[in-house]
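Pilot study result, target chain (306 residues):
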Amino acid sequence: MRALVTGATGFVGPRLLRLLDDPVVLTRRPERARDAIGTLASRIHAWDPMQGPPPAEAFDGIDTVFHLAGESVAEGRWNAAQKARIRDSRVVGTRHLVQGIAALDTRPATLVSASAVGYYGDRGDAELTETAPPAKDFLAGVCVEWEAEAMAAEASGVRVVTARTGIALGAGGGALGRMLTPFKMGAGGPLGNGKQWMPWIHVADLASLYMHAATTPSLRGPMNAVAPNPVRNSEFTKALAAAVGRPALVPVPYFGLRLAFGEFAQVLFHSQRVLPKVALESGFSFRYPGITEALAEIMGTKATAA
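Predicted structure:
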């Protein structure tokens, strides 16, 4: 596989690069990317997703594109400008990428484009596979448009998989990096009543699942990139507290997170019981299917039975 990767300097990107042979990277800041990923990429090309298609030479010899780029949904308060950046970084950026692919004389065979479980919105206890309809909120609307722009590459003969990714857990950052400090101080706790379902995935499984999507020709369209055992927020809280050896008893109220995060706080309380039906039926094997094993590996502790 000769692959090109966008969003390579994010939390998942370097893990994916390590699974590839001499990948090519597209990035807005090549010098910063070289400092971040070192020799994990053979070539780095400058590309601003908001300004137009990538340079054609970046695709020389490329047969697979992994598109992970996008503005973080958890950075800053959700005012109108920030919501526009979140949407445009995904929708417009993906549109420009697909336009660049369409203009090539020799096109890559496969595009694996990130999406998100935000597609489903707040769905209570309903089991959500890839055929579940989208919600009507802001993030769901972004995901619908984002996936549509990626799927447009099919008109150019490219196989497209849109990976609806859950909360990626791993050492060195990401969502877990934000959670660890209060939990280590004994100040962690469930969000509200803790009954909401959390769709999560170990970052190692996520990188492997992207590879699985790229190397499994039968896969097309949406694929839930989540572990096969979603947990309620209260279960996750208990498992994380055990992993760090601290109590986590005091619930975190919605109004406190609303003050801290604004509208984004609503997303933290969404219940999404997302299941990776497509991944499992296509033969993918999760290395970390359970939250206890996943957190134990991340925290460097020995897994114990839940």
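One observation from the pilot: The longest strand covers residues 110-116. A full batch analysis is planned for the follow-on phase.
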